[in-house]
Write a structure and sequence with these properties.
The protein is of the alpha/beta class. 54% of the residues lie in helices and 12% in strands. The protein folds into six domains: 67 residues, Winged helix-like DNA-binding domain superfamily/Winged helix DNA-binding domain (Arc Repressor Mutant, subunit A, Orthogonal Bundle); 68 residues, Winged helix-like DNA-binding domain superfamily/Winged helix DNA-binding domain (Arc Repressor Mutant, subunit A, Orthogonal Bundle); 137 residues, no CATH class; 107 residues, PTS-regulatory domain, PRD; 83 residues, 3-Layer(aba) Sandwich (Rossmann fold), CATH 3.40.50.2300; 137 residues, Mannitol-specific EII, Chain A. It contains 25 helices and 14 strands. The strands form four sheets. It has a five-stranded mixed β-sheet with strand order 10-13-14-12-11. A four-stranded parallel β-sheet has the order 7-6-8-9, covered by helices on one side. The radius of gyration is 33 Å and the shape is elongated.
Length: 646
């Protein structure tokens, strides 16, 4: 007997024991359910009792009372209720079984098949479908009829959520008290045994990765979710590619979801797509699953040294201190250990946010590619673009947490009612690197106490005084833009380096190629390689290392720039080459007309860091790219690189 059936029988007994009205609250407290559930049960009981002239009355401000019960008929009436509830329960079971059949098959079901399986008529099946449709409507899921066939249709994430929540509600009705035995008995009615076996293995294999709180409170909910996901993917029903990818920013959840999916794939020979993994990631997060990443493994000294090196590399590049961020350190320890395992075993995972991360954080992504060279050398693996982008997320989170929303805030302080305010903002946003945030604020709301020593203030107000500020006119002229750029890079970068100097003149004038005509990426790369070889700057496998890097991840960016690079071990003498094209060509998923090839030797890795950062920041600015494309001579490019830092 189900919990709901038992509750309705208890309610009937309570009503029969009372001679007067009792408030609904009285019954709800006795049975431990809501007043709404009591009213729903009363409606069902009244439907059963209507043919024997017995009614449960519901009177406002009085409550509930049963009428028509006598000493002579109470046993007969009670027997009728038990019988009808059994029948009702049987009908519910058939309805639930129908839903399960439709979900488990994944494709359309013929009415004839369903009649044979359920043992009911086609009209009864349609009645069950109508009842289910009322529930599914809120999920925008449809039970559709196609001639003599029935199929569930809608967005796959909605279908899975609907089925999961349906089963959770059923289990709450089914189980008087939760325990693993009753739960597994319940599951056998809604999933085939192979799915249950695989899901059991998942929870057994990864039990040490979850907190105790999770296991006690959310076990059955997550179990049903994973079993449903496996069931649907097993019949080739996958979450659509348009599914939200917001939870990828919590890398720990996403990586753990990848581990789960990888394990399931091997055990069940089931294929999953990236959106399926994102969907599981979101569920892990939504269900408050507390993943214990520190309990996964103990790390040896080698991993610790690698993580420390990568953090110090990025810190040096950006002139910040990140080594004190314990959360960053421990997260990278966990991530890199698993990443090395994946790469050594040729297990490649996709980051759904790869292109967004690469383009939004061009500077940080490019710097991470260089910092990752140390990992590649130590463990003899090649990091894919997806793996690099995951590392970028950890560092971006750390930078946001420790240094504000971005590397720095640029406060644009303007008077209220200035009609050119939006135009000023748009123009300034274009020339300030995306790594910095441009914050618009009215003059009368500006609080100078919130401005850090690293921030910049740009304003039209003559009365405003701030030690580090740039004055502009209300029309924002070209002179204003030049003034912003000059001051931005001279006064506020707080460094003594410039792009070009006598000691480190790494942009080789002989390797500057302007207004070239190539049809594709391969022609460009082959030309670069031949020029480097002609100048005796490289070793034998230089070209191979560039092509290998291109295979690991797209090196193009949405701003029309590509930044290929070679293995430092294959470079004899550091030389950076710049090329512009008359017409854009396809480079990965982007069209580009500026290519900057980094060939940095092992000996120059450390001292090149600030230089590389400067060059990347230079190319991030749209006005610099426009000027570069207009250059006709190598000398003009060299002069532009110098003036770009003045």
């Amino acid at each position: 007997m189900s919990k709901s059936e038992l509750r309705r029988i208890k309610l009937m007994k309570l009503l029969m024991d009372e001679n007067n009205y009792q408030p609904t609250k009285y019954f709800s407290e006795k049975l431990g359910v809501s007043a709404r559930t009591i009213h729903e049960d009363v409606d069902l009981l009244n439907d059963i009792l209507k043919d024997v002239d017995i009614v449960i009355k519901k009177v406002p401000r009085k409550g509930l009372m049963i009428e028509g019960i006598t000493i002579s008929n109470q046993n007969e009436v009670f027997g009728l209720v038990e019988t009808e509830l059994d029948i009702f329960n049987s009908v519910e079971q058939k309805q639930n079984e129908l839903f399960s059949l439709l979900i488990n098959k994944g494709s359309e079901y013929s009415l004839l098949e369903l009649e044979n399986v359920l043992g009911v008529s086609d009209s009864t099946i349609k009645k069950y479908c109508d009842i289910l449709q009322k529930y599914l409507r809120k999920y925008a899921v449809q039970i559709s009829y196609k001639k003599d066939y029935i199929v569930v249709s809608g967005n796959e994430d909605k279908i899975q959520n609907a089925y999961r929540n349906y089963l959770i509600s059923l289990y709450k009705e089914y189980a008087i008290q939760f325990n693993r035995e009753t739960f597994e008995n319940f599951l056998q009615s809604y999933f085939n045994y192979q799915i249950i076996d695989i899901t059991n293995l998942v929870f057994k294999m990864f039990s040490n990765r979850f907190s105790t709180y999770y296991m006690d409170q959310y076990y059955y909910s997550l179990y049903i979710h994973i079993a449903t996901l496996i069931t649907r993917c097993n019949v080739n029903k996958h979450i659509s590619s348009e599914y939200s990818d917001k939870c990828v920013w919590n890398v720990n959840y996403y990586m753990f979801a990848n581990e789960l999916i990888e394990y399931i794939s091997k055990k069940g020979n089931i294929q999953f797509n990236t959106s399926d993994i994102v969907f599981l990631t979101e569920s892990l997060y939504a269900l408050n699953v507390n993943i214990d990443i520190t309990n996964a493994q103990k790390y040896d000294e080698k991993y610790e040294k690698v993580v420390t090196n990568v953090i110090n590399e990025i810190s040096t590049f950006l002139n910040v201190r990140l080594i004190d961020d314990i959360e960053l350190y421990e997260s990278l320890l966990n991530h890199i250990e698993l990443m090395i395992y994946r790469l050594k075993n040729s297990i490649y995972i996709k980051n759904p946010l790869f292109e967004e991360i690469k383009n939004k954080y061009l500077l940080l992504y490019s710097l991470m590619c260089y910092a990752a060279n140390h990992i590649s050398r130590v463990y003899s693996v090649n990091l894919t673009g997806d793996e690099v982008s995951f590392l970028v997320i950890y560092f971006q989170i750390s930078l946001e947490k420790n240094f504000g929303l971005t590397f720095r805030n640029v406060f644009l302080v303007l008077p209220r009612g200035l009609i050119t305010a939006e135009l000023i903002y748009v123009k300034i946003r274009k020339v300030i690197p995306k790594t910095d945030s441009v914050v618009r604020i009215f003059f009368d709301e500006f609080d100078s106490s919130k401005v850090t020593a690293n921030d910049i203030v740009i304003t039209t107000e003559e009365t405003l005084y701030f030690p580090k500020q740039i004055k502009i006119s209300k029309m924002l002229t070209d002179e204003d833009i030049d003034n912003i750029l000059r001051n931005y890079y001279t006064d506020y970068r707080n460094d003594n380096s410039i792009l070009l100097n006598d000691d480190n003149n790494w942009v080789n004038p002989e390797l500057i190629f302007l207004r070239k005509d190539f049809n594709n990426k391969a022609e460009c790369l082959d030309f670069f390689i031949s020029q480097y070889r002609m100048n005796n700057l490289i070793k034998d496998k230089f070209g191979e290392s560039i092509y290998n890097r291109e295979k690991l991840g797209d090196t193009s960016f949405s701003v029309g720039v590509s930044i290929p690079h070679a293995d430092p071990e294959q470079v004899r003498k550091t030389s950076i080459s710049i090329m512009t094209l008359n017409k854009k060509i396809k480079w990965g998923i982007n069209d580009v007309n500026i290519i900057i090839l980094f060939a940095i030797s092992d000996n120059d890795q450390r001292k090149s860091k600030k230089y590389i950062t400067d060059l990347l920041e230079f190319i991030e600015i749209e006005s610099n790219r426009i000027k570069l494309l207009k250059c006709n001579k190598s000398s003009e490019v060299m002069q532009l690189l110098v003036s770009g830092k003045q």
